[in-house]
Write a structure and sequence with these properties.
It is a single chain. The protein has helices at 32-35, 65-77, 203-216, 237-241, 251-259, 345-354, 359-371; strands at 2-15, 26-31, 36-38, 44-53, 92-101, 110-117, 128-135, 141-148, 154-158, 162-166, 171-180, 194-198, 225-227, 232-235, 262-266, 270-274, 279-282, 287-288, 291-309, 320-331, 335-339, 343-344, 375-376, 378-381. With 382 residues, it is of the alpha+beta class. The strands form 7 sheets. Strands 4-5-6-11-8-7 form a 6-stranded antiparallel β-barrel. Strands 1, 19, 20 and 21 form a 4-stranded antiparallel β-sheet that branches. The longest helix has 14 residues, at 203-216.
C-alpha cells in the first residue's frame, strides 16, 4: 500500500494596530574584547599539499595519478629510483593541509591544522602526515606541519558483508601539528593609527563604545576614542599620553585597559527562520503589535490501493496490478487568538504551541505578521 499525504496550512492574520512608538533595546555590561578587535590584526590562512601514510589499505587507489606521482618524486629525492608501473600502494593518501596563523605567533610556536583527503581514499584513520610546507596566498612559506591524525571516528568493513561507520573519517586534525617558520610583519601597533573594529557593525554600538572609552580615560585634551563609522572606532594614544601622569602607561597596557571597558551594545531585532529544517531563532528585542491570528488546516490524504487484474481466458495477456486511488479530506476547526501590543516572541511561541501549530506553520505565521506590518524586527529566511 502506498500513501501520499499533502498538507495545505491556512493562516489568516488581521492587524488592528500598526503603529506604536519605537523602542531601543540594549544589552549592557559587554566587554570591548568580546565584540570588537584591533583593526589589521587578522589571521593568516595557510594551506599545503602533503601525504598521509600508515593507512590500513584505505588510501588512494591506482586511478589517483597525482598520489603515485608524488610518491615517486618523494622517493626520488630520497635516492630511491622506482619505475611507475611497479608502484602500487594502498596505504598512502594525498591530502590538503589547512590552518590559521594568528597574530603575534612567534617562530617556533605551534598551532592546529586540519587534514582533508583530495583523492579517492576511504579513510584517514590511523594515518600520519608527512612533513608538509604551509604557505599563504602569495606562496610565502610560513609554517610546516607533521604528525599523527585524529579523526574522531572509524570506518570498519568485514569481508564486504558488514559495514560500521562513525563520524566523518575523510578529515582529520593534528593538535599543535604545525610549527611557525616565519613571522609575518604588521605595523598596526605603532601608536599612531590604532582603531577598533566591531564584529557586528552598528552605529549606536560604535558611538556607545567610543563614549564608554572617553568616560573611562578622561583627558583635558582631545578625546581618546572617536567613532568613524558603524564598525570603526579610532583610538588616539598620543592624546592620552600627553598627560605627564600617564607617560608611564605603555601601548600594550593601554590596549589591555581598553579591551576591558564595558559598554552597552545595541542589537537589531531579528527573527531568523530556516524553512528547510523548520528552525526558528528570534532575539529577545523582537516585539509584535496587536494582531489577531486565525490558524486552521486542511489535510488531504490520498491512498493508492493496489488491485490485481486477471487476464481474459484463452488470451496471451498476463496478470497485472493497477492502483485504485481513494481520497479523504479533513478540515480542522480554526481558532482565533488575539495578541496584545508589544507581545514578545516567547509569548507568541507559547500561544502557538498551545494551538498545536507545527514549526513550519509558525514560519508561515511570522511571514504573514511581517506582511501585515505588525512585526517590529527584521525577518530573515535562510
Amino acid at each position: 500500500m502506498m500513501s501520499t499525504r499533502t498538507f495545505f496550512p491556512v493562516v489568516a492574520v488581521l492587524a488592528f494596530l500598526l503603529f506604536l512608538p519605537e523602542r531601543s533595546f540594549c544589552q549592557g555590561g559587554v566587554r570591548i574584547k568580546d565584540v570588537a578587535c584591533i583593526s589589521g590584526l587578522e589571521d593568516m590562512q595557510l594551506y599545503g599539499y602533503g601525504l598521509v601514510v600508515g593507512l590500513d589499505g584505505t588510501g588512494d587507489r591506482y586511478q589517483t595519478l597525482f598520489t603515485n606521482q608524488t610518491i615517486h618524486n618523494m622517493l626520488k629525492n630520497l635516492g630511491v629510483e622506482l619505475p611507475d608501473k611497479q608502484m602500487l600502494v594502498r596505504n598512502v593518501a594525498a591530502v590538503m593541509v589547512t590552518g590559521n596563523l594568528k597574530p603575534f605567533k612567534r617562530k617556533g610556536t605551534r598551532f592546529d591544522v586540519t587534514v582533508s583527503s583530495i583523492g579517492d581514499a576511504t579513510s584517514l584513520e590511523g594515518g600520519t602526515l608527512l612533513l608538509t610546507p604551509l604557505q599563504s596566498s602569495d606562496a610565502t612559506l610560513f609554517a610546516s606541519a607533521q604528525g599523527p591524525l585524529a579523526t574522531g571516528g572509524f570506518d570498519a568493513h568485514y569481508k564486504t558483508t558488514s559495514y560500521v561507520k562513525k563520524n566523518h573519517v575523510m578529515v582529520g586534525r593534528i593538535p599543535d601539528g604545525a610549527i611557525v617558520q616565519r613571522e609575518y610583519v604588521f605595523n598596526v601597533l605603532d601608536g599612531r593609527d590604532i582603531s577598533l573594529s566591531l564584529t557586528s557593525p552598528d552605529f549606536t554600538s560604535a558611538v556607545s563604545m567610543a563614549n564608554a572609552i572617553n568616560e573611562t580615560f578622561k583627558t583635558t585634551n582631545l578625546p581618546v576614542a572617536k567613532a568613524l563609522d558603524a564598525a570603526t572606532v579610532k583610538l588616539n594614544y598620543e592624546a592620552f599620553t600627553r598627560d605627564s601622569l600617564r607617560n608611564q602607561l605603555s601601548l600594550t597596557e593601554f590596549i589591555s585597559k581598553i579591551e576591558n571597558v564595558t559598554f552597552a551594545v545595541s542589537s537589531q531585532a531579528r527573527v531568523v527562520v530556516n524553512e528547510r529544517t523548520g528552525t526558528i531563532v528570534a532575539g529577545g528585542d523582537v516585539r509584535i503589535l496587536e494582531v489577531a491570528v486565525t490558524h486552521g488546516g486542511i489535510k488531504v490524504e490520498v491512498v493508492n490501493t493496489p488491485e490485481v487484474v486477471q487476464p481474459v481466458p484463452y488470451t496471451n495477456s498476463q496478470t497485472s496490478t493497477v492502483t485504485s486511488p481513494d481520497m479523504t479530506v479533513e478540515e480542522k476547526n480554526p481558532e482565533m487568538v488575539v495578541l496584545k501590543g508589544n507581545t514578545t516572541v516567547s509569548e507568541l511561541a507559547q500561544t502557538l504551541n498551545s494551538l498545536g501549530v507545527s514549526p513550519r506553520d509558525i514560519i508561515s505565521i511570522f511571514q504573514a505578521i511581517k506582511e501585515a506590518g505588525a512585526l517590529q524586527g527584521q525577518l530573515i529566511i535562510l
